[in-house]
Structures
1.
Amino acid sequence: MLVSLSVANFRSFAKEETFSLVASKRLSGTHDDHLIPIPDSQESVLRCAVLYGANGAGKSNLLKALRYVEMFVLRARGKKSNGTGREPFRFAGENKDPSTFDLQFIAAETLYHFGFSVDDEHVMEEWLAYSAGGRERTLYERTTDANGKVAIEAPGLKSAGQKLEAMVTVGGPPNQSFLATIRATLDREELGEHIRNVLAWFEDIALIGPDEAFGGMGEMLSDNSEFLDFAGKFLRSSSTGVDHLRVDKVTISEDELRSLIPREVYSRIVNDAPDGGIRLQLREGNELWIEPKGDSYRLTIQAAHQCNNGTVVPLEMAEESDGTQRLLNLLPALYFAQNNSGVYFIDEIDRSMHPVLVRKLFEFFLRNCTGDKRQIIVTTHESNLLDLELLRRDEIWFVEKDQSAGTHLYSLTDFKVRKDLQIRKGYLEGRFGGIPFLGDLDALSNEARCE
């Protein structure tokens, strides 16, 4: 579970801003089933959070910050000339200051603290620690000097094995994280328990943007009959008109495959297919499955509609409404969260979906995904979630920009709120900020009427 994320000098975050999911002790007795104890601590972490803000306020940049951290941990950067790929705050002139990311998270019953600081070319600092016995214990600290020389001190990795100790001595490229370096170089069993825990946590994060399809949906529906049944029932109960789903899996010829894949990448994809094969997403929503030195398939998701005369009419999912497609792409998060730990961060959960359905999705998660370390974080404009019968005050966050275009984060707990106050009404009236200021638009309307 994500406990906190601090970001500075990244996209719209100018100064350091912290998004904390540590539960407020002042709200004891309020939705206590939303809390999970933090290991080696007297505090708890929240199972969910909702972020509100005007368009352009920076809500999506919080997801993009976490995605950058995920990329930084899991992917090697390659050549030094590739730099670090950071996106500094750009509304204050030329910006050479470092970008900093700092987060705490729970993995394998342990609280970890990871962070790093980067400029355009180098990882200037990187650190990883864990909590035990009421103390934070350092696993490693890494620095890069002005000449690009990497130095690592790793008191917590001495018992992890000789190969990992050797990597500590080598250091790795100056423009990528130590975690990415050892992940790309060593086998899993050579990493040591703590590094494996940390990498597994980042590998399990689900970051879902507003226009993103769930990769491998066709394959998942085809291979997992339980999920196929779950998705069909959810769509049917959501009044989408869909009775059930099915996947049409058709073998395609080499000529058909060539027609679907750009010529310049065909030979590389087919000849270098990994042992597990290759899955490709086509523009119309279909998928290609290329087996290593074997057959190739086209997978098409079909939504079956039950007509009044008893006949069933199948439509390709690409023909369904945007709302139905969006709902289908969110269902894996709900399905897996019922039985598996993980962090699900959904940007603009209300995109193309009815307000009642958005609330039902949230209620389903809170009611059915009740195990340890299952967490959902969403950004939205949907005010129906602003209900203290549904959420705690510390689960409601607002995002707002200042006059210098810098993003600020703050929680509803920063305000004195009566228990009987209608939060939704107060938000729409501007009591908590995080809404667009439409004064100029009103003035434009008045000018139009005068003309």
2.
Amino acid sequence: MTPTPTASPATVNHRAILAIAVPIMLSNVSTPLLGVVDTAVVGQIPDPAYIGAVAVGSLIFTFLFWAFGFLRMGTTGLTAQAVGAENADEMVAALGRALLVAGAAGTVLIALQWPIREAAFSLLQASDGVERLGRGYFDIRIWAAPATLANYALLGWFIGLGRTHIALVLQLVLNLTNIALDLWFVLGLGWDVRGVAAGTVLAEWLAAAVGLAIALRHARTLGVTWSLARLLSAVQLKRTVVVNSDIMVRSLALIFVFVWFMSQGAAQGDVRLAANAVLMQFIATSAYFLDGLAFAAEALVGRAVGAVRRSALVEAAAMTSIWAGGIATLITALLWVFGPSLIDLLSVDAAVREAARIYLPWAVGAPLLGVWAFQLDGIFIGATRTADMRNAMLLSTVVFLLAWWLLLPWENHGLWAALYVNYIARTVTLLWHYPALLNSIDRPA
């Protein structure tokens, strides 16, 4: 075993937090920008069906790929704990196992694309025009599946290592390439939603190739070689399966909430669907910034658990949450001031602009309410307390559906209010499990 040259797991301070969080924030700037560009380029077509098609098509792949979000989250937690335990062999093996799963799962998704597509569009209550365009988007985007899942694993590994500057490089390669191709294919070649999908496919495969090359080089610097026997270790495989299956169930429940939100918006007509899609870009942008602090919590909490240091865990949880709360407050203020102008930037359709302004306050307040759920997710991922995450999210989903049903008379306002209720439920249920997480650390050093 070759010890990894990382800082002590007990090192939790503002500098350590920012060293992890800032590169993630910088890389994530390009991720919501990609969503903005996707929406903006098709928004130049004076028909809300094009924005709706991209929103619905993206939602389907969000559901598919976020179901495999454990490839990012589980890999981060397991890798960070190996860092804390100074076990370089297991650090590299954690990535190997994740890449094996990514390749197999991506291939299965491609093979099952027809039933997946038919099931997805039968569940979404979109208009004929939105569905027709959305199907064209799906038929192209599905071919990115293996690369997308491999990128999840690679991103999680580099975050777990604390090498977020490499994660920054990979995300920039992915998102800036995607943006450039979107602009070329849609505005230059006139491929409408098909151009958005094709740009995503090519960018995902390029980023996966670059990430794998960097990972192989980094493994060699640790003095570790790939070992099939270690990858297939029964004990580690069992642990990986348990962690990942819990996260998968949790992710499916979370994505169900957003699928339900968008489908109920679609049932209210193309204008409200498009307006909600524009406002969800604001929420996605906020979440990507706040993820920097949540990812810092994952890495630092994971190291603390690997080193069995309860005080380091408490410090990591508290300090990253303070930073996250401050940034959420700033984002909320910026959305309040610039929200109307951003709506006009994302859509030229007058009806969509008017509807988005009506529901803008809901999007403005979401970062300040959701940040606490995001931080708790990061803490529990780092500690690999995934059963608690799973149970909390399942209960929160039930609470969301009950709130939606009770708020039906308020139509789209009620739908947004139900989303707020889900944020609150996620926060409360994870806080309920937090004392047990602390008690799981044997030595309160």
